[in-house]
Design a protein that fits this description.
Layout: H1 2-55, E1 61-67, H2 86-89, E2 98-105, H3 110-123, E3 128-133, H4 142-155, E4 166-167, H5 174-185, E5 192-193
Helix pairs in contact: 4-5
Length: 194
């Protein structure tokens, strides 16, 4: 009987030890995941701070590879001027002249791209808006998006000695923003992020 009681207590102790070990491992894994999320949040805060700093630079601005924001840039009627539209707002700074803007869009959003081009002409007649159709079936597919942007960038005639280039990453899918970031960081686009 004593042996049964001892074995029962030993079994309970081993089960409790196994449960505690399992809990310890899971708490450690959860802490690591939480630390990664905190780091990602800090990186996002730094990215936003960098974007605000870049927007305050007072110099001539050449914008390349601006993705059309199908949500943020949309709007019709007089009310469209009441909301912030990132691509249009690029040309609304009195102290910064955008000489040329390459506006990338998918063919199904051509009407929106034309509207944004007209609105930019209204606020900044000196800005040459060039519409760049890019046939992408899935803007969330990294391979397709990067391939299309890479092909366009490789065929673009950059003149870094005489022009400044800024890549606008406020609009577009997160995948498109990541691809633009990679193209700028790898110097395929010889410019800075906006």
């Amino acid at each position: 009987m004593k042996q049964r009681i001892i074995l029962s207590f030993l079994s309970v102790f081993l089960i409790a030890l196994l449960g505690a070990t399992f809990a310890y491992v899971n708490v450690g894994r959860t802490n690591r995941m939480l630390s990664e999320l905190i780091n990602l949040h800090q990186i996002e805060n730094l990215r936003q701070k960098l974007i605000r700093s870049i927007q305050t630079v007072q110099s001539d601005l050449y914008t390349v590879n601006t993705e059309l924001g199908t949500q943020l840039d949309s709007g019709q009627g007089a009310g469209r001027w009441e909301k912030w539209r990132p691509t249009v707002s690029l040309a609304q700074h009195e102290d910064t002249v955008v000489h040329r803007l390459e506006l990338i869009y998918t063919p199904r959003h051509e009407a929106l791209a034309q509207g944004v081009k007209r609105d930019i002409a209204t606020v900044s007649p000196e800005t040459d808006v060039r519409l760049v159709p890019m046939d992408i079936s899935d803007p969330w597919d990294f391979g397709e998006m990067y391939g299309a942007l890479y092909d366009w960038v490789r065929s673009y005639s950059f003149k870094p000695d005489t022009e400044q280039y800024w890549a606008h990453i406020t609009t577009g899918t997160h995948v498109a923003q990541i691809c633009m970031f990679l193209l700028v960081e790898s110097r395929f686009i010889p410019g800075v992020l906006l």
